[in-house]
Amino acid sequence: MDEVQTIEAAVLSFYRGGSEQQKETHKWLQQVQNSPQAWSFCWELMQLNKSSEIQFFGAITLNSKLRSDWAEVPKEAHHELKQKLLETIVLFGNGPKIVLNRLCISLGLFIVHMLRHPTVIEEVTNMFLHEQLGSLSKVTQIEILMAVLEGIPEEVKNIRTQIPRTVVCEELNRNAEFVMQTVVTYLNEKLSRSAVEPHDMNGLINAAKCTGTWVAHGNVHLNDREGMIQTLLKAIHYCYWKEPKDDGCLMPEENELAETALKSLANIISSYATQNAKYSFTVINYMKLFLDVLVPILDAEYKENNDNENLALMIYALFISTLECFSSAIFAGIVTDSEEVSKVYTRTVDMLIKCTDKPGTYPVDESCSTYAMEFWYMLQEEVLSMDSGEHKKRCLEAIKPVYAHVVKVLVRKSQLPTESSLHKWNDDDLEAFRCYRQDIGDTLLSCHDVLNDLMLDVLSEALDESIMYLSYDPQSTESWTLLEATIHAFCSIAQKIEYTEHQQIVKLLKVLNEIPYEKYSDKLFGMALETVGAYSEWIGDNPKYLPSAITLLVKGLNSTKASQATLGLKDLTSECQKEVIPYALPLLDACRTALQEGHLKNAEMIRLMYTVGNILSVISYENIILYLDAMVSPCFEELQVHVQNNDRTEPTKARVVLRLEMISKLFSSLNIRKPTEGDMDKGLVVGVGPHKLPFPAGGTPAPGAPVQPILLILEKTMGLLKSLCTLWIHDETVIDTLCKALQQALTNLMDDIKPLLTEMCCLVLSILNTNCVVSAADIAGNFILMFYKDQDCRQLMVQLFTAIMDYNFNQMELNVGKLSRIADLIETFYAFNTRISKKIPICYSEVQIDCMKLVDYATKCMMLPETGPMKKSVAFITMFVKESTNHPVMMNVILAQGENIVRSTFLCIGGTALRTQVEIFADIFLALNFRYPAEFIQWMKLLEVPNFPTAYVSATDKEQFMRKIIKERVNKRLVQDHVRKFAALCRNIVEYENK
Q1: Which of 234, 297, 498, 783 is buried most deeply by CB count within 10 Å?
Q2: What span, in angstroms and rounded, lies between the C-alpha atoms of 276 and 670?
Q3: C-alpha–C-alpha distance, residues 604 and 661, integer Å
Q4: In this structure, are residues 943 and 961 in contact, taking their beta carbons and an 8 Å threshold?
Q5: What is the pTM of this model?
Q6: Could you report the per-residue pLDDT of 53-88, keeping only the tens digit for each?
Q7: One Gene Ontology cellular component annotation (predicted)?
Q8: In this structure, are residues 780 and 804 in contact, taking their beta carbons and an 8 Å threshold?
């Protein structure tokens, strides 16, 4: 008795105590639940004189024991357990509901365990149907029965039972029709009356749920489900139309029954999705039933802010689900001789057009229109995937008018909220609408696939309409939304528009330059700027429209939409680099002005430097020098001031990072030797004006050729960068940003960096010896890969290589036993060594480093829980093994470490690594087996050790696995399959062949 009181006190403490106390109490209560004594005390807790918290804990304890510990119940106690369960259900038959629901689940669990008895479901069902549970009313008994039956198939998925799963499934299939007949009979009986009593609603809801959970069982053909489908539709029809509602809103119970019936209908349809062709006629029949019963409800709810929006959503979801499962059957109606199939298709399309065009603005006035987007993709995919021929042509012609109409609907629906309506919107609404607009953009791409050039005609008409709407009330400041939505539609399909000089695009660009943006919301201007950027590639093919595009984007630099302007300029100068030459200097002046005025945000300034680099790359060399001095010098001058002041405050750090990111972005795009499209094949020269560069694009400069501008910048500023590095050496953010800037310079300069190689390497070395950030290791790796074989640079590269190895070894030694703390560093380190192993493995022989330690740490790192270090370590070991046979130093390491590698690999497969990632270890087995076949056989004998890698896998299984792995030296897929199955055995997980 004292034990029960202790448990009760703990339960109350858990529900009413603080978070720390709850944590400890929860842990203790779990231990109590798992104890064999729980079978006894759970009943004592479920007494009417206890609090609801204690009663509920007793009920979930019984649940837990039935689900996981059935083996603790002796066979002779089964009948007594059943009786106790039924008595307790009677006790709580009238509530609390939370306890009764758990008891219903428990009875379902008991039935699953007893399925060896072929009549157990019928016996329990008849007991409830014939009112054999004492004082409970017939209504309550039916409600409980339906809840119990509904849960049985679900519990089978989670229960540990002594009955083989195949037997359980056979019994469920054998009992399915009895259960279904019972449920449908009950539903029909209740729904056939003129009015359903309120107290019957819970029973009807549970019965409707039951049809959805049992439908996957019984091996019944879809055409035999018509009676059940009609019954569920009858339930929905009854709930919606049974009587006029004063406020138009369904009562909660009616709404729940209707929605439950819709979910079950969707379950029924999806259960037969894999048998598409077999049930074409049947699905058309069912779709007609859905249209007849459900579309009138949708028509009644076709308004803004309707009170049954969720019901409408679920109806649309049922239609979409049916189309997903049986699209070919329904889409056969596009062009067919069957009037019935044609009508179903036509009615479906009409219904989903109305769904797309639901009155109101998503998501504040309506929530349905987003559901139809998927249909428009499905329909065009169905038609476009047809084999070319007359049938496809007819189908395409048939759906074009539909898609033309849908485009206009989508433009209208994508209108932004006006300022006066924003009070109705919260942040979640705005984010939902942003995603909705993205979905509309994607759907417009599908529409273009159907309409092709006709799409531009439709949008051009929409553009005319939106301009006309704007002119109706010139004084209105809120009539811009339709024009903005039309421009957004043009922007969405830009990627589909080919180089032809389409007059519709010409008209669009003209309109964009003529709109008086100052009269309207800046969102209209922002969309115009984004659209110009989106058409950069088209403008590159039609350069006479470049001036108007530049004019608009430059205007945008001085507006609140500078972000879109900088993005547009970045795209335009990338796609039209040669074409922008005549406008380069005024454009550079505009960029310089914008940068100097200080109104741009950090991201905009950084992005604008990419544009500056693009333009500088194609102007004359004298102008490059002039503009570099004017536009880049301020960055370095500010950095110089911070260094001289020895200023390391947070505001200064932010400015330093900004300036370095601006320089980095300039370095990524400024390259006077950068080949343009086609130049690599043609050997054309790069540059303009009197100082064209006298060497082929991408080639080695001729003697006396102009120095790359980036090199000039670095030569002048290397001292400053060193000072900056010294000042901020312990700040990872600053050092990482600096290294990324140098990496961008290296990427563009390549061999041209040689004059500064020693200084840059010394700078990187100072970083590696103090703060080996990821980007420092990356740039050092690139230096080594590029210049290691150059004898003039060899000594410097050896120093870099040694510094990287020493720093990382030191960090791993400091963190032995807690390597996860430096997971990012480890990931970078072994990614670097994988590149070295693959490209210049001779390093490991020529440089004095401890390769034994390198591989030993890799075996430890591949056992880390973090995915990055694990994968990079495995990749390194694999590559090191593959290359080792050509290099004695590496080979000796593998011969010495081979057994350790195999042991660590087995431990990872056995449980250290996530089961979803074990296949990666097949790479190590393949590499070892291919390069060291004799030794690999010996190393694999580790499996002969008892209980290794786990106690779950038998000696026979290990022997079979060993033979399979040793046999395969090439077939990666097969070895991965063997490893996956062996991992399942090691973890005591049954892996079914059909999964």
Answers
A1: 783
A2: 57
A3: 11
A4: yes
A5: 0.82
A6: 999 999 999 999 998 889 899 989 999 999 999 999
A7: cytoplasm
A8: yes
Give which of 233, 305, 236, 320 is closest to 270, Cα–Cα: 320
Burial code (b: 16+ CB inside 10 Å, e: under 16) for 723-734 equals bbbebbeebeeb
CA distances from residue 369 to 307, 346, 445, 688 in whole angstroms, order as listed: 16, 19, 17, 54
Taking CA atoms, 155 is separated from 21, 116, 152, 176, 754, in Å, by 32, 16, 5, 15, 70
Q: Pick from 323, 257, 332: which is nearest to 290 by CA?
A: 323
Confidence of residue 276 (pLDDT cuts 50, 70, 90): low
CB 598, CB 638: distance < 8 Å: no
Tell me the one-letter amino acid at 242. Answer: K
pLDDT-wise least confident of 246-255, 836-845, 912-921, 973-982? 246-255
Residue 840 neighbours by CB under 8 Å, 6+ apart: 784, 785, 788, 789
- For residue 571, what are its two tokens? 């795209």
If you compute the radius of gyration of the chain from its CA atoms, what whole number of angstroms results?
A: 36
Sign of the dihedral through C-alpha 89, 92, 95, 97: negative
- Please state, in angstroms and rounded to a whole number, the distance separating the CA atoms of residues 174 and 165: 14
User: Encoding tokens for residue 150?
Assistant: 């509904």
CB-CB contact of 28 with 74 (8 Å): no
Q: Which of 873, 962, 963 is nearest to 923 (CA)?
A: 873
The mean pLDDT value of the chain amounts to: 90
CB 392 within 8 A of CB 386: yes
Q: Mean pLDDT, to the nearest integer, of 861-873?
A: 94
Task: Assess contact for 32 and 38: CB atoms under 8 A.
Answer: yes
Non-local (6+) Cβ contacts of 337 within 8 A are none
Q: Give the N- to C-terminal CA distance of the chain in Å, as an integer.
A: 49
Beta bridge partners of 685: 696
Q: Is the Cα dihedral 173, 176, 177, 178 positive or negative?
A: positive
Which residues have C-beta within 8 Å of that of residue 861, sequence separation ≥ 6?
819, 826, 830, 869, 870, 872, 873
Q: What is the pLDDT of residues 727-744, one digit of tens each?
A: 999 999 999 999 999 999
Name the one residue in this structure whose structure tokens are 């002119």.
471
Long-range contacts of 349-357 (CB under 8 A, 24+ apart): 349/379, 349/402, 351/291, 351/295, 351/298, 351/319, 352/316, 352/319, 352/376, 353/402, 353/405, 353/406, 353/409, 354/298, 354/302, 355/298, 355/316, 356/406, 356/409, 356/410, 356/413, 357/409, 357/412, 357/413
Residues in the chain: 995
**Cα→Cα distances 165→122, 148, 161, 876, Å:** 20, 20, 8, 43
- Whether 901 and 862 have beta carbons less than 8 Å apart is answered as no
Separation between Cα atoms, residue 775 and residue 865, nearest integer Å: 23
Query: Token pair 């409970």 is at which residue?
Result: 136
Task: Confirm if 353 and 409 have CB atoms less than 8 A apart.
Answer: yes
Taking only the tens place, the pLDDT of each residue in 305-317 is 888 899 999 999 9
List Cα–Cα distances, 181 to 177, 178, 211, 227, 718, in angstroms.
Answer: 6, 5, 10, 10, 85
Averaged over 12-30, what is the pLDDT? 80
| Cα distance between residue 917 and residue 931, in whole Å | 24
120: amino acid identity, one letter: V
* 696: DSSP letter: B
For residue 49, give the amino acid letter: N
Q: Find all residues with CB under 8 Å of 29, minimum gap 6, and list them.
A: 7, 10, 11, 14, 57
Q: Please report, to the nearest 10 degrees, the dihedral formed by the alpha carbons of residues 645, 651, 655, 660 taken in order.
A: 90
pLDDT winner (highest mean) among 241-250, 452-461, 467-476: 452-461
The residue ranges of every structural domain in the chain are 1-114, 859-865+873-994
